[in-house]
Write a structure and sequence with these properties.
- The chain is mostly helical and about 325 residues long.
- Helices cover about 75% and strands about 0% of the residues.
- The protein has a two-stranded antiparallel sheet.
- Helix 2 packs parallel to helix 7 and helix 5 crosses helix 9.
Length: about 325
């Protein structure tokens, strides 16, 4: 639902975003020297872009449902593999926030085509929106945790002593669920923008960008799927959450294809929407990475502390490999 709301906003605003900025000065940005008009679309093969929709759909589904499927297996080897995939995923999410989202948000809010009313604050909007997103996520976690604790306290008067659940375990499970929901929202917002960029991409850049986006979606799908798999949600709910991810980027591609003739990436509306979404997503992903993932899965996780030194090293290496993969992908996308 969140992705559809953002998609509707993008379609309605971006389709008509190519208005004339003229040659006036925007807060120190000289539009007489910078062309903020829509660029003429170069060679564009519709069939190739439609193929890309299905390629991205398949790769994204493989990543996220592969991890969710692993989570249904109970053998020790599968559990060990899933833990390593999860650590790889934490690195992917951290790399996405720091190397993909933040630089792109700074690029948008430092654009000379930024609206005059926003140009003075400029790149500070990145930190502002990211900070707001992080604060909102924390408030959501705290409020939901209080509600969950109150419900558990009520159950203590109803359940026999031997049937009571551990309050600590219940809190960890509940926080994991909330963190996964929030994380998916941040990833879906980012995925929609990636799809839009791919949908309006001309042929001479398309193949390179498609390959980079495919790997990006595969890695991010593995990351998100491994986190969904380890929650206590029902398998049906996990599948529903899994379906949102592979559909979002193709949806962005379709939107890009539909608005390719009128879309202007230098238009003020396009810059503000993309910059804002990237800033909000980066705040969500950074908070989730360090508080909900690294904090819960490493720093305060009794199970992790019980791992052998060699397995701990393997976990950290997988996390660094995940972050490195996103750093390398930044060369193309």
């Amino acid at each position: 639902m969140n992705s559809l709301v953002v998609a509707t906003l993008l379609t309605s605003v971006l389709a008509g975003a190519g208005h004339d900025h003229g040659g006036h000065d925007h807060g120190g940005h000289d539009h007489g020297l910078v062309d903020c008009e829509a660029m003429e679309l170069e060679e564009y093969t519709l069939q190739t872009h439609i193929y890309g929709v299905f390629i991205i759909l398949a790769v994204s589904a493989l990543g996220i449902f592969g991890s969710i499927w692993l989570g249904t297996k109970k053998s020790k080897n599968i559990t060990t593999t899933l833990q390593l995939v999860k650590m790889f995923g934490i690195g992917i999410i951290a790399g996405t926030a720091w190397i993909h989202l933040l630089p792109h948000a700074f690029l948008k809010f430092s654009s000379p085509c930024l609206p005059e009313s926003m140009s003075r604050y400029g790149i500070s909007f990145v930190g502002l929106f990211g900070l707001i997103a992080a604060f909102l996520v924390q408030l959501l976690e705290v409020s939901s945790s209080r509600h969950n604790h109150s419900s558990h306290a009520h159950e203590e008067h109803v359940l026999p002593i031997e049937e009571k659940e551990s309050p600590e375990l219940t809190h960890i499970q509940h926080s994991s669920i909330i963190g996964t929901y929030v994380l998916e929202f941040g990833i879906l917002s980012h995925s929609l923008i990636i799809g839009l960029a791919l949908g309006v991409c001309p042929d001479d850049e398309y193949t390179t960008l498609l390959i980079a986006v495919a790997f990006h979606q595969l890695f991010e799908g593995l990351a998100l799927g491994s986190l969904i798999a380890t929650t206590v949600l029902s398998l049906t709910t996990k599948i529903y959450l899994g379906l949102l991810y592979p559909l979002t980027t193709p949806l962005g591609v379709v939107i890009g294809i539909l608005v390719r003739e009128s879309f202007n990436q230098n238009a003020a509306a396009a810059i503000v929407i993309q910059g804002t979404l990237d800033s909000l997503s980066s705040g969500i992903l950074i908070y989730t990475t360090y508080c909900s993932l690294m904090g819960a899965e490493i720093n305060h996780h009794s199970g992790f502390k019980g791992y052998s030194p060699m397995f701990k090293v393997a976990c950290f290496l997988m996390m660094y490999v995940g972050a490195s993969a996103m750093a390398i992908l930044a060369l193309w996308a």
